[in-house]
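pasting Winged helix-turn-helix transcriptional regulator for the record, 152 residues
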Amino acid sequence: MATESGPTVEDGVRELLLLMPRIVGRAKRTPPPPELDDVALAPRHLSLLAYLLFDGPMTVNELAGRLEIAPTTASLMIGDLSRQGVLERTEDPDDRRRTIVSIHADKRPAVDAWLARGAKAWQEALSPLSPSERALVINTLKVYEQYGSRGD
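structre below
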Protein backbone atom coordinates (compact mmCIF):
# COMPACT_ATOMS: atom_id res chain seq x y z
CA MET A 1 0.00 0.00 0.00
CA ALA A 2 1.33 3.40 -0.96
CA THR A 3 1.65 6.28 1.48
CA GLU A 4 2.10 9.98 0.81
CA SER A 5 5.86 9.59 0.77
CA GLY A 6 5.96 6.40 -1.32
CA PRO A 7 5.42 2.66 -1.30
CA THR A 8 6.04 0.35 1.61
CA VAL A 9 9.21 -1.74 1.48
CA GLU A 10 7.17 -4.78 0.44
CA ASP A 11 5.39 -2.84 -2.32
CA GLY A 12 8.73 -1.41 -3.48
CA VAL A 13 10.28 -4.88 -3.60
CA ARG A 14 7.32 -6.15 -5.62
CA GLU A 15 7.55 -3.25 -8.09
CA LEU A 16 11.30 -3.66 -8.52
CA LEU A 17 11.10 -7.44 -8.93
CA LEU A 18 8.65 -6.83 -11.76
CA LEU A 19 10.68 -3.96 -13.24
CA MET A 20 14.22 -5.38 -13.14
CA PRO A 21 13.68 -8.11 -15.78
CA ARG A 22 12.37 -5.44 -18.17
CA ILE A 23 15.40 -3.22 -17.49
CA VAL A 24 17.82 -6.10 -18.03
CA GLY A 25 15.92 -7.14 -21.14
CA ARG A 26 16.14 -3.62 -22.52
CA ALA A 27 19.90 -3.55 -21.95
CA LYS A 28 20.31 -6.93 -23.66
CA ARG A 29 18.19 -5.81 -26.62
CA THR A 30 20.31 -2.71 -27.22
CA PRO A 31 22.31 -3.94 -30.18
CA PRO A 32 25.73 -2.57 -30.99
CA PRO A 33 25.75 -0.21 -33.96
CA PRO A 34 26.37 -1.75 -37.40
CA GLU A 35 30.00 -0.60 -37.30
CA LEU A 36 30.54 -3.09 -34.47
CA ASP A 37 28.59 -5.99 -36.00
CA ASP A 38 31.77 -7.94 -36.68
CA VAL A 39 32.89 -7.61 -33.04
CA ALA A 40 31.88 -10.18 -30.42
CA LEU A 41 30.64 -7.84 -27.68
CA ALA A 42 29.05 -9.00 -24.45
CA PRO A 43 27.40 -7.02 -21.64
CA ARG A 44 30.63 -7.29 -19.61
CA HIS A 45 32.35 -5.17 -22.26
CA LEU A 46 29.96 -2.25 -21.69
CA SER A 47 31.53 -1.12 -18.43
CA LEU A 48 35.07 -1.45 -19.77
CA LEU A 49 34.22 0.60 -22.85
CA ALA A 50 32.27 3.14 -20.80
CA TYR A 51 35.26 3.78 -18.51
CA LEU A 52 37.54 4.31 -21.50
CA LEU A 53 35.00 6.50 -23.27
CA PHE A 54 34.19 8.71 -20.27
CA ASP A 55 37.54 8.72 -18.45
CA GLY A 56 39.99 8.29 -21.31
CA PRO A 57 42.93 5.95 -21.77
CA MET A 58 44.21 4.08 -18.72
CA THR A 59 46.37 1.17 -17.68
CA VAL A 60 45.20 -2.43 -17.40
CA ASN A 61 45.50 -2.25 -13.60
CA GLU A 62 43.44 0.96 -13.46
CA LEU A 63 40.71 -0.67 -15.57
CA ALA A 64 40.79 -3.82 -13.45
CA GLY A 65 40.39 -1.74 -10.28
CA ARG A 66 37.45 0.21 -11.64
CA LEU A 67 35.78 -2.93 -12.95
CA GLU A 68 36.50 -4.70 -9.66
CA ILE A 69 38.04 -7.68 -11.44
CA ALA A 70 41.48 -9.28 -11.39
CA PRO A 71 44.11 -7.70 -13.64
CA THR A 72 44.45 -11.01 -15.51
CA THR A 73 40.71 -10.98 -16.29
CA ALA A 74 40.92 -7.38 -17.46
CA SER A 75 43.95 -8.25 -19.57
CA LEU A 76 42.05 -11.11 -21.25
CA MET A 77 39.10 -8.83 -22.05
CA ILE A 78 41.42 -6.12 -23.36
CA GLY A 79 43.36 -8.63 -25.45
CA ASP A 80 40.14 -9.96 -26.96
CA LEU A 81 38.86 -6.47 -27.86
CA SER A 82 42.31 -5.46 -29.14
CA ARG A 83 42.42 -8.43 -31.53
CA GLN A 84 39.00 -7.37 -32.82
CA GLY A 85 40.23 -3.82 -33.45
CA VAL A 86 38.08 -2.10 -30.80
CA LEU A 87 40.89 -1.28 -28.38
CA GLU A 88 44.50 -0.36 -28.86
CA ARG A 89 47.35 -0.87 -26.47
CA THR A 90 50.34 1.45 -26.42
CA GLU A 91 53.45 1.64 -24.33
CA ASP A 92 53.36 4.18 -21.49
CA PRO A 93 55.98 6.81 -22.43
CA ASP A 94 56.77 7.37 -18.73
CA ASP A 95 57.15 3.68 -17.86
CA ARG A 96 57.71 1.24 -20.72
CA ARG A 97 56.63 -1.68 -18.53
CA ARG A 98 53.08 -0.31 -18.41
CA THR A 99 50.52 -0.54 -21.18
CA ILE A 100 47.97 2.19 -21.85
CA VAL A 101 44.61 1.02 -23.20
CA SER A 102 42.29 3.20 -25.28
CA ILE A 103 39.41 2.86 -27.71
CA HIS A 104 40.71 2.67 -31.26
CA ALA A 105 40.03 5.98 -33.03
CA ASP A 106 38.16 4.21 -35.86
CA LYS A 107 35.77 2.50 -33.42
CA ARG A 108 35.26 5.41 -31.00
CA PRO A 109 32.21 6.94 -32.80
CA ALA A 110 30.48 3.53 -32.89
CA VAL A 111 31.21 2.85 -29.21
CA ASP A 112 29.96 6.34 -28.34
CA ALA A 113 26.75 5.76 -30.32
CA TRP A 114 26.20 2.39 -28.62
CA LEU A 115 26.60 3.80 -25.11
CA ALA A 116 24.71 7.02 -25.91
CA ARG A 117 21.32 5.27 -25.85
CA GLY A 118 21.72 4.18 -22.25
CA ALA A 119 23.24 7.51 -21.29
CA LYS A 120 20.25 9.37 -22.73
CA ALA A 121 17.81 7.13 -20.88
CA TRP A 122 19.64 7.68 -17.56
CA GLN A 123 19.85 11.41 -18.24
CA GLU A 124 16.08 11.50 -18.73
CA ALA A 125 15.50 9.51 -15.53
CA LEU A 126 17.99 11.42 -13.35
CA SER A 127 17.54 15.00 -14.59
CA PRO A 128 14.37 15.79 -12.61
CA LEU A 129 15.95 14.54 -9.38
CA SER A 130 17.90 16.58 -6.87
CA PRO A 131 21.58 15.68 -6.35
CA SER A 132 20.70 13.87 -3.12
CA GLU A 133 17.90 11.93 -4.84
CA ARG A 134 20.31 10.94 -7.64
CA ALA A 135 22.81 9.78 -5.03
CA LEU A 136 20.08 7.72 -3.36
CA VAL A 137 19.15 6.00 -6.64
CA ILE A 138 22.79 5.27 -7.50
CA ASN A 139 23.63 4.01 -4.01
CA THR A 140 20.51 1.84 -3.91
CA LEU A 141 21.45 0.17 -7.19
CA LYS A 142 25.02 -0.34 -5.96
CA VAL A 143 23.81 -2.02 -2.76
CA TYR A 144 21.46 -4.23 -4.78
CA GLU A 145 24.27 -5.23 -7.14
CA GLN A 146 26.73 -5.88 -4.30
CA TYR A 147 24.21 -8.03 -2.43
CA GLY A 148 23.51 -10.06 -5.55
CA SER A 149 27.21 -10.71 -6.15
CA ARG A 150 27.76 -12.03 -2.60
CA GLY A 151 26.12 -15.33 -3.47
CA ASP A 152 23.83 -15.40 -0.40
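The longest helix spans residues 9-29.
The CA atoms of residues 24 and 30 lie 10 Å apart.
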